[in-house]
Amino acid sequence: MNLRERLEEVETRIQKAVLRCGRKREEITLVAVTKTFPAEVILQAYELGVRHFGENYVQEFEAKFSEVSQLSDAVFHMIGHLQSNKARRAAELSDVIQTVDSEKLARRLNQYAEVSLPVMIEVKLSEEQTKAGIAPENLTRLVEFIREQCPQLRLVGLMTMPPYFEDPERSRPYFRKLRQLAEAHQLDCLSMGMSHDFEVAIEEGATHIRVGTALFGPRTRK
Ligand SMILES: *Cc1c(COP(=O)(O)O)cnc(C)c1O
Questions:
Q1: What's phi and psi for 99, nearest 5 deg?
Q2: Which end of the chain has fewer beta carbons closer than 10 Å to its terminal beta carbon, N or C?
Q3: Distance of alpha carbon 88 from alpha carbon 114, whole angstroms
């Protein structure tokens, strides 16, 4: 399958999920995850109508940036774990930062963001040691910190990444939990769901799904 066909297939899956739960297609933003793929792939997806892109690594995105910066209506989301020493470049290059998970990082982003930079907080809902994100019990504090002390940042939502399960149904409790947390803090955006489980995420209220493999095929490990 080529990219056009894969995109059509993903669209069909989104449409079906949306119909199943009585939502509207416009409520869902497809974020095409282009980590490990060259700028060329971003340009191809753009040609086919994709406007939102997700990148994981500041340095990798920086290398592609000159080739994609002319796409004036493309929206670039930082979706990878961010160290605060990368905050400056991340704030300069990205349109949305989905992975704020500490006051330190928020403070740095606030310092370098030029306009009202939309951000989401990454919440760690699993026990896995490797997963980034803030623990749910510390969320309220970070929400308040950003709202009260980071005037350059606009907190729009929450993001999460459950552990990988073969059966996408097993992601559901994590997605549901994220939605409850977002509701409790009056946050509108929910970035959740990847290639194998985005239908379940849509059913649970996702506004942003982050899809890599289903669009671009398998990544070769770095
Ligand atoms: C790589 C990645 C994705 C995309 O995963 P696929 O399974 O390839 O769709 C989504 N979100 C994050 C945070 C990622 O790192």
A1: -120, 40
A2: C
A3: 10
Token pair for 74:
């493309």
What pLDDT does 222 receive?
A: 54
The first and second tokens of residue 190, run together, are 């929910």
- 32-72 confidence digits (pLDDT tens): 999 999 999 999 999 999 999 999 999 999 999 999 999 99
Residue 163 phi/psi, 5-degree rounding, is: -60, 160
Ligand 1 site, residue 168, Cβ cutoff 6 A: no
Which amino acid does the sequence have at 29? Answer: T
User: How far apart are alpha carbons 114 and 92 in whole angstroms?
Assistant: 8
Q: Which of 160, 210, 215, 219 to mutate to test the pocket of ligand 1 (most atoms within 8 A of CB)?
A: 210
- 3-state SS, one letter per residue, for 97-123: EEEECCHHHHHHHHHHCCCCEEEEEEE
- pTM higher than 0.70 for the full model? yes
Instruction: Name the residue of 6, 194, 202, 220 whose CB sits within 8 Å of the most ligand 1 atoms, as the mutation to test its pocket.
Output: 194
Q: Determine the Cα–Cα distance for residues 121 and 124; give it in Å rounded to an integer.
A: 10
* Other residues' Cβ atoms within 10 Å of the Cβ of residue 82: 27
Helix (H, G, I), strand (E, B) or coil at 49: coil
